[in-house]
Amino acid sequence: MQSKTATSQNRSPALWSRGGSSSEESSPEEVGPRFSLTASHDRFAEERQRIRSIVVDFLSRSDYRAVQCPKDLAIRAKLGAEIQTWAMYVEPRMLDKMLETSCSYVETAFGHTSAEHRYYIAIYTACMLYGEDLGEHDADAVTQFGRRLVNGQRQLSPIFDRLAELLQRAHLYWSDVGADAIITGTVDALTATALEFATTGTPVAPSALRYPYYLRTRAGGGPQYTHFIFMRSWREKADSYLQILPEIEHWTLGTK
Questions:
Q1: What gap in Å lies between CA 31 and CA 161, rounded to an integer?
Q2: Of 61, 114, 157, 202, which has the maximum CB count within 10 A?
Q3: Per-residue confidence at 178, pLDDT binned at 50, 70, 90?
């Protein structure tokens, strides 16, 4: 994904079609609206800060010590250069968050993977962070991601076009089981993100005890970040590690 002037070079209108042009074309004006993610429009800033304070307080009273991993300067430079081309769609503070969070994930949990895998995971994470914030400002772009993906249509955001391109190449990097989980987990996560925003303020019924867990497991990205661990070049098939996936996914969701 490049800037607005270069997106046409990377967009594949029929990423998932069997050939030919996209069944739905969007004019340049319809794709990639400018989003302002200012604090004044962030209805959830106060709630996020409250939750952050609770987590920080909990960690400060435990034996937790932050893991200090070496920074991957090559990945940071490459990712920084790409997401800077998103500046017309994303506010600078959000770009900084995307860069730091995405690289920290890669440096902390995926240092054993190849540079190519690490960059895939980093840019994927940046796209998903964008989706989390986009859900508040343009729900249609998020809710239509899955539909447009399977129909081979261009997305309503050029950053989601980049995400669709990544999913198209998932099977090159991970086993069939892993790639399928990454693809379906991505659609699940974006759908759950849209639901979270759409139902903000809706009280949870006393009898719906498992609903928060249900929503969290779909929005949390557990399957994707679990399968990212196991490169196809390490295991062509998932047979040898299938049975440890539930444990890893449980802790992945818990930490996220």
A1: 10
A2: 157
A3: very high
Q: Tens digits of per-residue pLDDT, 206-220?
A: 999 999 888 888 888
Helix/strand/coil percentages in the chain, nearest 5: 60, 0, 35
Report pLDDT for 44. Answer: 61
Residue 192, domain member (yes or no): yes
Query: Does 9 reside within a domain?
Result: no
What are the distances in angstroms from CA 169 to CA 96, 118, 136, 173, 175? 26, 14, 28, 7, 12
Tokens of 173: 């990097």
Task: CATH number of the domain at 93, please.
Answer: 1.10.600.10
What is the C-alpha to C-alpha distance for residues 6 and 32, in angstroms, rounded to an integer? 13
Residues 121 and 113: their CA atoms lie apart, in Å, by 10
Tokens at 197, concatenated: 């925003």
Q: State which residues form the domain around 143.
A: 72-255
Strand partners, 231: 174
**For residue 30, is it within any domain?**
no
Give the global pTM.
0.77
Q: Which two tokens stand for residue 77?
A: 């430079």
Question: Does 38 map to a domain?
Answer: no
Tokens describing residue 101? 């969070």
Would you give the end-to-end CA distance of the chain in angstroms? Answer: 26
Q: Is 174 helix (H, G, I), strand (E, B) or coil?
A: strand
